[in-house]
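In the current project phase, our protein records have gained a structure token line. A sample record follows, to show the layout:
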Amino acid sequence: MSRYLVTGGAGYIGSVVAARLLEAGHRVTVLDDLTTGVSEGVPDGADFVRGGVAQAAALLDSDYAGVLHFAASSQVAESVRDPEKYWRNNVTGSLELITSMRRAGVRTLVFSSTAAVYGEPEQVPIAETARTAPTSPYGATKLAVDHLISGEAAAHGLAAVSLRYFNVAGAHERHGERHDPESHLIPLVLQVALGHRPHIEVYGDDYPTRDGTCVRDYIHVTDLAEAHLRALDAARPGEHLICNLGNGEGFTVREVIDSVRRVTGRTIAAVVRPRRPGDPAVLVASAARAHDVLGWRPRHTGLDSIVADAWAFARGESA
């Protein structure tokens, strides 16, 4: 089996991907500075190096078959307040990583990109051919890294795959969401179920959707990890493949809240607030290319199943 470096592997998604690589029999080194990741997130059996992506230069050698790159700043609102941080961490950091890979002769990269690169969608579901017009520095920096990867593939033969997705939820064994502060809907609603907050805020109930609240695409984190493993097999020298990942349908904010009520059996108070500027009514990604090229299809498509795994993790149980 092969050896892989997982940057940001102590974070939510990176830790699940690292765990799945180990389960598949690979050797894994996790590189994470623990700014947002947690040491408990590093899966058993992985080598752990505490540090930023600049440390990759000292780690990478010909023994590594590839890199899976999750290390990034990822809060949209923070990126608006502090764009310099995002250009430095996301773009400069990725440039240093890719340069280190070239010097070490490591020629395969799977990049955790985002569907935020598309901005306000002109058509849904969103395909890879959609116009890219990010509305935040976060989305802009992720798009810049995608352009960087394309140039590296063309000029130096890098085999690369970028995966673009919106909302990730659920849990895999002991790996789940531990964001601080939390900004994702499902764990926020679960905090209400646990009594950690009095209510969930719903931003706008007058959108042109089936119940007036925003529609968003949710992927179970285990399905997302499977896509990353398949991307390693699909990477080809000199090519940069970009795939959107989606659940195939979206769920409204009210549907998410109702799912948490069903799964937990708890009362969930919801308070409607005015719309937030820039929130599109519907964000759903097309995964047709991932189906065709990666052979990937999500298995955990039911909302209650996704919420149930997140609920088990939130209560300290294994999902």
In short: The mean pLDDT is 95.
